[in-house]
Amino acid sequence: SYEVTQALSVSVAPGQTARITCGGNNIGDTNVYWFQQRAGQAPILVLYRDSSRPSGIPARFSGSNSGNTATLTISGAQDADEATYYCQVWDRTKWLFGGGTKLTVL
Amino acid sequence: QVQLQESGPGLVKPSQTLSLTCSVSGGSLTRGIYYWSWIRQPAGKGLEWIGHISGSGGDSNYNPSLKSRVNISVDASKNTFSLRLTSVTAADTAVYFCARDWAGGNGMDVWGQGAAVMVSS
Asked: Coil, strand, or helix at residue A12?
């Protein structure tokens, strides 16, 4: 069955660029969704269909998807961006979530 | 603006059935091209999709790992959808979220705040 993999953690200095990746076999052929989950809160959709931002999501969140890797990029990371980020794909008849990447802003 | 709210028992005994309801406010559950999902998250772990159902109730999909124990249904008259998970064990202890899922590909854009369920005798 299909699997998507994420690094456990990423660190970024305030104001710098964070890149969080989601790996999967030919993941570039499918739409990838990204969620942000702060501690104790429900997830929030930050990107859909690889790179589109829902209303209210800051422009510093962007995405790309090609080959075997999808990437969520946070440009000019802020303290408020510290959270766990999950990628998600649709695999035939089910949704799959990646294991999540904890982003630390330090 | 659509909002979702989970409700149900916070404690379920092993081997019994977990039942949760998601109330939809600010819009009709049956209107539009939406599916309605359940997702769970054990403490300190990642998200696991349980399954979803169309607003009409006519189409549903389930996580194969849970399919034999799960049923999701819609009550249009109450504007709610529900989750039933049978034969629960401690491994089913988690926070359960409901979410709106655009069938058109715009993703799970609205989530409930989550309901904590513990399976324990």
From this structure: strand
Is the CB of A95 less than 8 angstroms away from the CB of B109? Answer: no
Q: Determine contact: A2 vs chain B, CB below 8 A.
A: no
For A93, nearest residue in chain B (alpha carbons): B61
- Count of H helices and E strands in chain A? 0, 9
- How is the beta sheet containing A61-66 ordered, strand by strand? A18-23, A69-74, A61-66
Question: Mean pLDDT of residues grouped by 10 in chain A (106 residues)?
Answer: 95 98 97 97 98 97 98 98 97 95 97
Quote the minimal CA–CA distance from B96 to chain A in Å: 10
Chain A CB within 8 Å of residue B66 CB:
no
Give percent above pLDDT 70 in chain B: 100
Decide: helix, strand or coil at residue A22.
Answer: strand
